[in-house]
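Field reference: sequence -> structure
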Amino acid sequence: MEEAARCLLCVDAPCSEGCPANTDPGKFIRSIRFRNPKGAAETIRENNPLGGVCAYVCPFGRLCEKACSRSGIDKPIKIGKLQRYAIEQEEAFGMSCGKPEADTGFKVACVGSGPASIGCAAELAMSGVQVTVFEREDKPGGVLAYGITPARLPQAVVDHDIDMVRSMGVKFECGSAVGDSLSVDGLFDQGFDAVFVGAGLWKAKAPDIPGLDLKNVYTAVEFLRSARMSGGFKAAEGKNVVVIGGGDVAMDCAATAKLSGAANVMIWYRRTIGEAPATMDEIKYVTELGVGLCQNFAPASVEEAGGGLVAHFKGRDGASEASAACDIVVFAIGQGPEDMTGPFGVGTDDKGFIKAGPQTDRQGVFAAGDAVYGGKTVVEAVAKGKEAGQAILEYLNKKGVK
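Structure field:
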C-alpha cells in the first residue's frame, strides 16, 4: 500500500505507454492504492493473459518503470512487484478472468503454447472463438515451462496463468508433435478456420569449434530443459561448470547450475559485460549467487583431459589465450527457429524466421512471436500474439458468420 501510494496518478500515465502488452500499470496501481486488489487483477488479466508470468520475468527497468514519472523525483514505482501482488491476490481469492462473448462458431488452432500463442488464444477466446492449442511437450507453456530456470519463474506461476486461459474455454492438447496432423493442411482438414503458428526458438546455435560432441557439453536448451523437468540439473552437483554466452539465457543457465549445487560456475563472454544483452538485474543476480564472469574471451575449442573437460578461449585482442578446466560446458549463445517450411509451408527469410505481419503468405495462416521476430521478451511476444488474434478476428469476420 505504501508503494502504491507513491504513485503520482499521472493523467497520461507514461508507465502504461511503456508496456508492450497494454497491461496498464497506471490503472491497476490506482486500484491497489485505493484498496481494490480485485480491480487491479482484473485490469492486468483483461490486458495480459500472462500477467503472473510477466510479473516475474518482465524487464520492467527498461519498459514501464523506466517511463515512470516518479523517476524524476526519487525512484520509479516498483511496478513489477505491485503486479505480482495483484496476481497473488487473484489466485488467493479465486477471482475469474471475465466471461467470453457468445460462441461465433469459428475454430482456430494455435501451434505451440508459448507466450505468443497464449496471447493469441486468449484474445480469440474472449471474442467467442473456439481455440485449441497444440503443444508437442507434456505440459503447456513453451519456453515458460522448459526454458527458464525455476528460481526465476516458479512452475506454479506458469500453471496459474495457463489455468486462467483454460477458464476462458481454450483447450490444450499436449503431446501433439508437428507432423501430418499438425501440418497446415491437416489442421484445415480437421475443420479449423485459421491457424496460428507460435513456435519458439528451439534450435540451439553453436560455434563451429572442435569438441561440441563431447560428453557433458550441452546447449542451453538441453541444459535448461533437463533442469526444468527434474527440478534442477542433478549432474551439476559438486561440479565445475562453464557457461558460454552473455544473454539472459546464459544467466539462467549459470543460476540453474549454481542452485543445482555446482561447486563453481564461471560465465565466459566474448565481449564486455556492458555490451552483453543480458539485463543488469540478471547479471547482478548471478554474481550475488557467486558466479564468476570473464569478459572479452570467445570459445576456441573443448577437449577431454584428466577425466573432465578443458574449454579453450581466444582473447578479443587477437593475442590472448585462456583455458578453463571444468566438468560441464554449456553453450548459451542463442537459439534459432526449427524448419517452418515443411510442416507449415510458410515463407521464411534467409535465417529461417517466418515472414508474417502477422498474416503469412498462406491464406488463413498467421504467425507471431520468436519464430517471426527473434528472441524477444515474454511481454513483447504476448503483445504480438494479441495483435495476431485481432488480425485473425478480422479475417474470420470477412468469411462471415458460421
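Note: The first strand starts at residue 107 and ends at 111.
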